[in-house]
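Bug report (template v2)

What were you trying to do?
Predict the complex of my protein with iron/sulfur cluster.

What happened?
Run completed; filing so the output is reviewed.

Input:
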Amino acid sequence: MSKYVERFNTPERVLHWFVTVTFFTQLLSGLGLYSRLFVGYQDFFGGGQGAILVHKIAGILFLASSLLLFLNHRREISAMDDDDRRWLSKMGGYLSREPFQENNGKFNAGQKLFGIFMGMATLVLGVTGIVIWIPLSFPRVVVQLSLLVHGLIFVLFIMVVIVHIYLATIGNPGTLDGMLWGRVTRLWARKHHGKWFREITGQEKAG
Amino acid sequence: MACKQWNRLDADKTANQGSYENPRDLTSNLYNRIRFVEKADGGGMKWLFLNERCVHCGDAGCMKVCPSPGALYRTKEGFVAFDKEKCIACKYCVSACPFNVPRYGADEKVAKCNLCADRIDAGMMPACAKACPTQTLQYGPRGAMIARAKASKRAIYGEADLSGLGVLYLLDDKPEVYGLPDGPSIPASIFLWKDVVKPLGILGFWGSIAAVLFHYVTTGPKRLEEDAPEKGGIRHE
Ligand code: HEM
Ligand code: SF4
Ligand code: SF4
């Protein structure tokens, strides 16, 4: 029997990395507009006007792909059960070295919250981004608020993404495999997502 | 018109809109205009006039938000001038100006009164002040202008607002009657954006990095049970 189980199929992985690339494109092209400390980053895009152009094009791609990612997973992340609530009250067991018996579906409660944040934040960045894009078509207060909110969500987004990257890589060894080549070890699946593992394999022990 | 000649601005088409006031708004080709205010005064009508233009704020909202160094800059006399070459057409300054002054033309670049920075450099007066036949517009060192304004005993607008405006108005009525904000300030959301979110964002970024690193070396990652015994042992894939 194979040592692995499939976690993400190819279209899912491609979509995830597409969102990642557009996200970092947005990050780099937006930084120079965020603060003059970072004008240097605009050189990647041939100056400020280039950065704005890239930000608009990649913004549309990011908006579309990230919303699609959210919609694809909306059912898996929208409901919390008792195991999820236990996970949340223990903060996923991340705050101590005590072993924590988690019993998660395909996604744990933290991942569900992350997914919901992604969806909402993408939408808000998209809407405010379009207002900033054509400021003369909106009342001045709306544009002023959009600039503030776009900047605020940008900051929150980065903080959340840093945590996401940490937990998906060195924080939980074995996790990245699932997104890189689609498979995870049975051992990993049983430990991190026991309920999901039993659903897809119909068995209790890691073979 | 002196302004248009000096700054080489084309004429905009204007229309008669049933008022003596014409043109009705600033444009990318019109850096200053006269705002007409009609006010009922007892039985009759009072006319108030205001030269509407960039007032060269001491604490300028437009400069606070401009992401492109040098697109908006302060001249050594303290005025806010602009450089179309450096403007990257983000239009942030439009939203940040308390007086709603900056305009955009077909070139998508910023346009506003720059107090004829090039004339001043050459030791001349701004074209508007030079041309004004009644000396309603006067140009001079700020201290001297304030002293002269005080002597006239009329209400001065802009002496201390926004760290002092570069253009002072002498008003015969309340600022609002002229369409000027009473106690102008940089819009609150713009202030929050640039003075609160921006610095906190940098803190948040480094804070998050520090937090995950701290977690890694204290609590540590969630290892799979087998990791430890497997080390040094036989690995079979
Ligand atoms: C969802 C799609 C998005 C759209 C449609 C969008 C659109 C825009 C637009 C039009 C601007 C103004 C650019 C200009 O100067 O003309 C802007 C600014 C900016 N964007 Fe986005 N954006 C999006 C997503 C993002 C993301 C994902 C990030 C960060 C990872 C981001 C970060 C920024 C930053 C830092 C600025 C500078 C303004 C500020 O500090 O608030 N944007 N965006
Ligand atoms: S009036 Fe507006 S454009 Fe002029 S300096 Fe002040 S903020 Fe800038
Ligand atoms: S439109 Fe031009 S002048 Fe105005 S804030 Fe943007 S870069 Fe600066």
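What did the reviewer find?
Residues 227-237 of chain B have pLDDT under 50 and may be disordered. The radius of gyration of chain B is 27 Å.
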